[in-house]
Amino acid sequence: MKVLVAGAGLGGLCLAHGLLRAGVDVRVLEREDGPHSRYQGFRIALNAHGLDALHACLPERLHALLAAVSGPMAGERRVVDQRLREVRRLGPADEGTATDRYVLRQLLLAGLADRVEFGRPVVGYTERADGTVEAHLGDGGSAVGDLLVGADGVGSAVRRRLLPRAEVVTLPGNAVLGRTPLTARFAALVPGFGTVVHGAAASMLLGRMEFRRPPRLAAAELAPDVRLPDTGSYLRWVVMPTEPLPAGPRPWEAVRTDLLARLDDWHPDLLDLVRQADVVNSAPLTARYAEPVPHWGGSRRVTLLGDAIHPMPPSGGQGANTALRDAALLARTLAAVQRGSAELPAAVEQYEQRMLEYGFVAVADSLRRLPDVTPAR
Ligand SMILES: Cc1cc2nc3c(=O)[nH]c(=O)nc-3n(C[C@H](O)[C@H](O)[C@H](O)COP(=O)(O)OP(=O)(O)OC[C@H]3O[C@@H](n4cnc5c(N)ncnc54)[C@H](O)[C@@H]3O)c2cc1C
Asked: Residue ranges of the domains in the chain?
């Protein structure tokens, strides 16, 4: 059996590992020109679903490296005002472990050099009379397999063709996502799991991304053939102004100036956190989600996973975890087909029924957890 995966994101790469472990032939077709060509560095909270999926799919020799480039997500949650005076405590939380999306993606690329084809966007597909599927690529080429998996993220070209009526909604409001290198001064802002700052003009969520070991060094020691980026620990912050910032794409410097103007009476540590943000990895944040879709029926040679079918706002910390869960479930399902104990169309439909059920529960949960940005009094 040959599986084509559109998209070398977290879900697509996890699936590719799971399939290779099961002896299934796989090709991953990725739109971007290379593994480093895009802003992609933010903190990802990994819950039990995400970690179980990664452990099930990644080769065992990479498990210790995954643990080394993760960090804790536990401790007290505090609410403070804009001058950093504690307003209340929300009690301790333990949400598993955190890692960085870019670091995780590089780790997931390990061992897949001959499987991932960069610069090859999937722009459409044809289901052929012989039961195979042909993916059409933006470079004019094509690829043929027994199954095409759209793991091509929130703007999925595969979903647009398979489910043209599926609706993706952009949430109103505009948050700004930033990250600032973790120094002793900034670490004091988040003594536990996280800190929420409630000010009159904005709210700010703060969380730490503190790697147990620096990713590049950890890879050199634990899996010398794997190249991880030289990413240092950082503080991840999200500012949600009560009055929207100007819309449209703008340089970071302009966004930062607007933001600082809104926060002018905030504590100097918070202002410096914004001033010293990493320019490449800080930007306005657009949150989107999908309306639930019923199963599309029929037994096709095309399916979807992750943000391509159930995008959700980051508020629940579940998008990547659900994409990874989909990947592990689909890999398990296709492994049974490879062994000859299941038929491909029926197995894929079974995967879809389960994935749609828990996927849209996660979307609803994430929408319920959208933060309240009512101005502080
Ligand atoms: C600020 C922020 C914080 C987040 N925090 C968390 C968190 O804490 N926990 C969590 O679980 N989730 C979190 N998420 C969500 C998470 O990042 C996504 O849900 C997850 O990356 C989805 O994985 P995916 O593989 O489905 O898609 P992606 O990771 O988006 O990958 C899609 C891939 O497909 C490629 N592609 C696109 N179009 C095509 C095409 N036509 N052909 C070929 N390739 C294509 C893209 O270039 C990309 O490489 C967060 C998101 C944001 C924005």
From this structure: 1-31+119-171+288-377
Q: Identify the architecture of domain 1-31+119-171+288-377 in CATH.
A: 3-Layer(bba) Sandwich (3.50)
pLDDT band of residue 40 (cuts 50, 70, 90) is: low
Total-model pTM: 0.95
Closest to 58 (Cα-Cα) out of 120, 108, 24: 108
- Nearest atom of ligand 1 to the alpha carbon of 152: 34
Question: DSSP string spanning 157-211?
Answer: HHHHHH-TT--EEEPSS-EEEEEEE--HHHHTT-SSSEEEEE-SSEEEEEEEE--
Does ligand 1 have an atom closer than 6 angstroms to the CB of 116?
Answer: no
Over range 119-135, report the average pLDDT: 96
Instruction: Tell me: pLDDT of 374 over 60.
Output: no
Ligand 1: which residue has its CA nearest to atom 39?
152
- What is the enclosing helix (H) or strand (E) of 232? none
Is 299 a residue whose pLDDT tops 70?
Answer: no
Residue 173 has pLDDT above 80, yes or no: no
Question: Ligand 1 atom closest to Cα of 157?
Answer: 41
